Amino acid sequence: MNQQYLATEKVYPTAEHGKFSLRDMLDYFVKRGALRVSDLHIKVGAPPAYRIDGDLVKLKGPDVTTDMAKMLIFPFLTEENMQKLKNNYSVDCSYRLGPLQFRINIFMENDGLAAAIRALSLEIPEVEEIGFPNNVWEDIINRRHGLILMTGITGAGKSTTIAALIHRISKKSACRIMTVEDPIEYIFPQHYSIISQREVGRDVKSFHGGLKEMLRQDPDIIFVGEMRDAETISMTLMAAETGHLVFSTLHTRDATGTVTRILDYFPEGRQAEVRNQLSLGLAYIVCQKLVPKKDGTGRVVAMEILNNNYATANLIRTGKIEQIYSQLQTKTRNRPDEKMLTIEKHLSMLVKEDKIDLLEAKKWANNIKTFTDCMQQD
What does the alpha-carbon distance between residue 293 and residue 278 come to, in Å, rounded to a whole number? Predict the structure, then answer.
């Protein structure tokens, strides 16, 4: 941390609890838990705000001034990161406090300095605690090759789900696991597997560069933190095709949209080639959302699961992406080549189990008519 600015210095005058330091603000995450309180936003011209169970809640106090912002944000920065912020107007960093790791993006915006602080528990949950609607996770952790894509909006718990899957593989199998992340979120303990984690900007220059090197380092399982460009996607698909089990993430809201997003990274002349690669290398797409619980005690995961069986692979290869949704609706039996589910079906299951409210479920459904149909089924 920057020695000129102290995390313990009392800076922000709240209406009810006196002055808060940066450490006081971070301690609130520790007290409530990262599953309930996921983010803290600090910016000039507005009170600091936490994201609690998915909703933004502002502290009762004055707007943050420029001086307050510096005193609340700069303690995170080393001299090197301070220089990066000056040169690039944005910098990523991390900070550890007790049982939590904080992923931080500090940036300049119209009113001045701002920070988005995401809390991550250092304790990786067991995969049974994630909330899969079926036992597809067992099929995933027993695979030897293929691409597992975890998708969803920012803050949907994609990294947590992947961490739980990799953690379980590490505890049951002796294999070489390598990751390239930006930044590293969960620190994997060494069990039967040997795990190497590399951070973009510290251990490797880019996702693409890290993945290229990784393929020469004898990995069995690869985790690419995010597929951000065509080069990284191409190498990720190649790794999945050539006998590796590969995990990665994308910011998409459903399974069919994920396939379309991948193809959109490439010019028209290459799309047939990429469709063929994807049809051969893809294993599963799991799109997830975190929905507030009915009893107000946190959030529960809702998932859409695509299993790339023969029929789905053929639809991808021939470019009939719009027909994939019918596979999600019909191939739902507990068989290795099925186990698919729409997000609407899982939401209806959660409503019927009294875990989420009906009106809340409607907000998160991609297709209201399909959700209504699911609710009317037994």
Answer: 35
The tens-digit pLDDT sequence of the chain (378 residues) is 555 788 999 999 998 889 999 999 999 998 888 778 889 999 999 999 999 988 899 999 999 999 999 999 999 998 888 999 999 999 988 888 888 889 899 999 999 999 999 998 888 999 999 999 999 999 999 999 999 999 999 889 999 999 999 999 999 999 999 999 987 888 899 999 999 999 888 899 888 889 989 988 999 999 999 998 999 999 999 999 889 999 999 999 999 999 999 999 999 999 999 999 999 999 999 999 999 999 988 899 999 999 999 999 999 999 999 999 999 999 999 999 999 999 999 999 999 999 999 999 999 999 999 999 999 986
E strands in 185-226: 194-199, 221-224
Q: What three-state secondary structure class fits 124?
A: coil
What domains does the chain contain, in order, with CATH numbers?
12-121 (3.30.450.90), 127-376 (3.40.50.300)
Q: Both tokens of residue 109?
A: 């915006």
**CB-based contact 168:160 (threshold 8 Å):** no
Phi, then psi, of 80 in degrees rounded to 5: -65, -45
C-alpha closest to that of 292 among 374, 366, 364, 367: 364
| φ and ψ of 20, to 5 deg | -105, 140
Name the phi and psi angles at 61, rounded to 5: 180, 180
Amino acid at 314: N
Q: What six digits make up the tokens of 208?
A: 């693409």
Cis peptide before 336 (omega within 30 of 0): no
d(CA 182, CA 173): 26
Give every CB contact of residue 139 below 8 A, 6+ residues apart in sequence: 336, 339
